[in-house]
Amino acid sequence: MDYEKIYARKAPDGAERRDLKRISDSLGEKIRSLLSKMRVTAEVQLVGSTSKGTNLKGGDIDLFIVFPTSYSRSDIVKVGLKIGHMILPDGQEKYAEHPYVFGYVEGHKIDIVPCFSMKENDNLKSAVDRSPLHTRWVNANLDDLKRKEIILLKAFMKGIGVYGSEVSKGGFSGYVCELLVIRLGSFQKVLEFFAGSEKRLRLTQDHPSPIDDAPMVVTDPVDRKRNAAAAVSMENLARMRILSREFLNKPSEEFFDGFPRKSPPNIPRKTCFRIFSLERPDLLEDVIYPQIEKLRKIIVSESRNEGFHPIDSEIVFGRRINILVELENDVRPAIKIHAGPPAHSQETRKFLDKWDKSPHVRGPFIVDERPVVEVKQVSRFNDVIISALRDKDIGANLNSVKGSIRIYSVPATKEQRDLMQKYMTRNLTG
Amino acid sequence: MDYEKIYARKAPDGAERRDLKRISDSLGEKIRSLLSKMRVTAEVQLVGSTSKGTNLKGGDIDLFIVFPTSYSRSDIVKVGLKIGHMILPDGQEKYAEHPYVFGYVEGHKIDIVPCFSMKENDNLKSAVDRSPLHTRWVNANLDDLKRKEIILLKAFMKGIGVYGSEVSKGGFSGYVCELLVIRLGSFQKVLEFFAGSEKRLRLTQDHPSPIDDAPMVVTDPVDRKRNAAAAVSMENLARMRILSREFLNKPSEEFFDGFPRKSPPNIPRKTCFRIFSLERPDLLEDVIYPQIEKLRKIIVSESRNEGFHPIDSEIVFGRRINILVELENDVRPAIKIHAGPPAHSQETRKFLDKWDKSPHVRGPFIVDERPVVEVKQVSRFNDVIISALRDKDIGANLNSVKGSIRIYSVPATKEQRDLMQKYMTRNLTG
Questions:
Q1: Do B264 and A344 make contact, defined as CB atoms within 8 angstroms?
Q2: Which of A142, B270, B313, B408 has its CA 20 to 30 A from that of B195?
Q3: Is A326 contained in some domain?
Q4: How far apart are CA B91 and CA B104, in angstroms?
Q5: A61-67 and A43-47 as β-strands: parallel, antiparallel, unpaired?
Q6: Which residue of A246, A366, A370, A384 to mutate against B (max B Cβ within 10 Å)?
Q7: Per-residue model confidence as pLDDT tens digits over B168-180
């Protein structure tokens, strides 16, 4: 395994580094002079991976305007947006913890984000305030050898699909990669850590984490109550563990570049597919994704509760939200057994009275220690699931587009065909 | 509710009583004289309901030959069979705890059974030895008023399908009916006992039963370690409780005569039926029934384990054994998810190695914290169940006729149509 070659492919080259430095220095200067003109006493700080020299090729420039806590949040947002738009005339506003401006300079993505000045282990006003602390801590604990290891680790995680702490990914953030290499020493050591047999992976420096039920816990050195790896999902942790083990056994460049997606043999599956398609509200992915995930879970659990035996499911969201579910059947029995109270209960009388007067199919008869009756039920999946979803809360923003849900049995659009393809070619990377 | 009328319909009339008395006296005399000719010092005792005056119309005559314990079991069986055949020239042998002869005299069924003489709470040599003790105890504790109540209780239990302690019935024996009336006072009181809200029904006279996990416990007064109601199944106890409650609320003769069986409305059930038909070995019902029941349970559990979602099942045994099972589907998906070891285990390497080289459909991919792979599976019910049954032990006597199992999707014989009818018209009495 020629790590130098991988590094050369994945790390920015000298020209890109120089460009990023030149652009961020110049933007920083401009912001500083604007602040001084506006008589605002704030500092400009380059944060994120570029500021730490741990960026992969094509990284962003994150410029933070760090305000003293004497300012109000609305003030720093106002100043932040104003300066953002002056610096990036084509910039757009985006909303994380609060609004900020992003745009492009010479093809590089630039974020201009206002935040408050904080000290380590302070009670933070918001999560963005942590970034300058992270930058400072990481730079104080890094050397160029480790920077290289971090870039290898990030490239590996990106290759196997576990890199990125956005909600829809549930993976490892760049900062967690940095902490892992700083704590464990090298790319190789990090992989050995994940490939081990410990049931629970914890890097807590003997500070027991208050959020110990997370799949993985890495204490944030600038805020020791915080789990820096809180975003990592059980699946992505499993993926990282299993594929670290595979890589250590048989290293290959594939791990850095993504595995090929193979189509399965074309056999009749004797199952039923449904694709739920609905409008995508115009909101940040991190806001809308948890609601899509909630809807997927509701579709699967209702399919299960209602007896359609779901096998597996998959989400894609492009222009619309599409959720696929594969079922054992799309027709269930037209009858079901409805159980009454146990034999010792006086309520058996009411149960038998009710069913003496109400239409039913078989019974009442006795099963185990209860009277039961067989009743009719709706048998087609679409009828059942539509009425089940009607009563469900699928999240503030999706509730409003519930009416747009269409159910397809075969993919009808490019996005739906892609979803089907994603489902059928699923591999270890996702 | 005119109990006198019910009693008159269900109890033997004067002529029948006189006939039974005459026949049993005369048979008893004959046996005694044969014993004396054979120089065997054994006593003849009329046992069972006829001996206690608690018999329903058309009851049997049970004549026991009670031997001192100085005799060996083989001796008493030899003498018992010899005398049996002399008394009942057309008699046949039957096997309970040991062989005995039964036959008919003037249309009344006669059992001639050898047993050992025992005292109360002795360690019994076999269960038949208890009958003379039961007869003695019951007669010492009964008056004619209670005899009437017992006959009503037996007729009620017979009407609702819970009378009879044979294995295939799992109901209440005549002796338990007698104990219940003796302990509780009357037919009405017994029904009130069952209709109550106690979770567990126990009549133990403060003798905690060693077999307390039975659905119902009634201490046998002649053998206080024994649960006289051990044969009662959970279903039949539930049936008795629920229908006692119904009867007390609205008494009707129906309870003594059996409920009508109503055919359900003819709707498409969207389910699949299978009837397993096999040869009936020429053995006592009490021997073969537990094996049939075991086979039914295996068919249901294998159907469930293999993903065919059984709904309900039913047995009839006439000339052949027929077991019906209703399934949600008779075709399951042609694929299934096969899960590997958890992510922390070093065994994930073997799992991925194996499936890298073995044919599969989708994957491997990650679900929760495991690598999984999707593999093909046989999808037709008959193929799956036949191979599942091949490896199963379905009991010594049924194993030998396993080869005769035929599986039908629609009833093909009168017995199978009756089975279907029994299943579709199931009511509270069974």
A1: no
A2: B313
A3: yes
A4: 7
A5: antiparallel
A6: A366
A7: 899 999 999 999 9
Q: Which residues of B touch A245 (CB under 8 A)?
A: 346, 348-349
Supply the ipTM of this predicted assembly: 0.91
pLDDT at B123 over 90: no
Residue B344 reports pLDDT greater than 90:
yes
B339 at interface of A, judged by CB pairs closer than 8 A: no
The CA distance from B159 to the nearest CA of chain A, in Å, is 15
Q: Residue B35 maps to which CATH number?
A: 3.30.460.10
The Cα of A220 is separated from the nearest Cα of chain B by a number of Å equal to 24
Contact list in A for residue B197 (CB cut-off 8 A) is 344-346
Indicate if A222 and A353 belong to the same structural domain.
Answer: no
Per-residue pLDDT of B244-286, as tens digits, reads 999 999 999 999 999 999 999 999 999 999 999 999 988 888 8
Helix, strand, coil shares of chain B, percent, nearest 5, are 40, 20, 35
What are the structure tokens assigned to A99, written together? Answer: 């609004």
Distance from CA of A51 to the nearest CA of B (A): 34
B375 shares contact with chain A (CB less than 8 Å): no
Contacts B428 to A, Cβ<8 Å: 352, 363-366, 371
A211 pLDDT more than 70? no
Tell me, yes or no, whether B131 lies in a domain. Answer: no
Structurally, how many domains does chain B consist of? 4
Nearest to A233 by CA among A300, A298, A173, A155: A173
Q: Is residue B104 part of a domain?
A: yes
Last residue of a domain, one of B203, B225, B257: B257
pLDDT digits (tens, 9 = 90+) for A256-290: 999 999 999 999 999 999 999 999 988 888 889 99
A251 touches chain B (CB under 8 A): no
Domain co-membership, A79 together with A173: no
**CB contact burial B158-190 (16+ within 10 A = b; e otherwise):** bbbbbbbbebebbbbbbbbbbbbbbbbebbbeb
User: How many angstroms separate the CA atoms of B168 and A349, rounded?
Assistant: 28
3 state SS of A131: helix
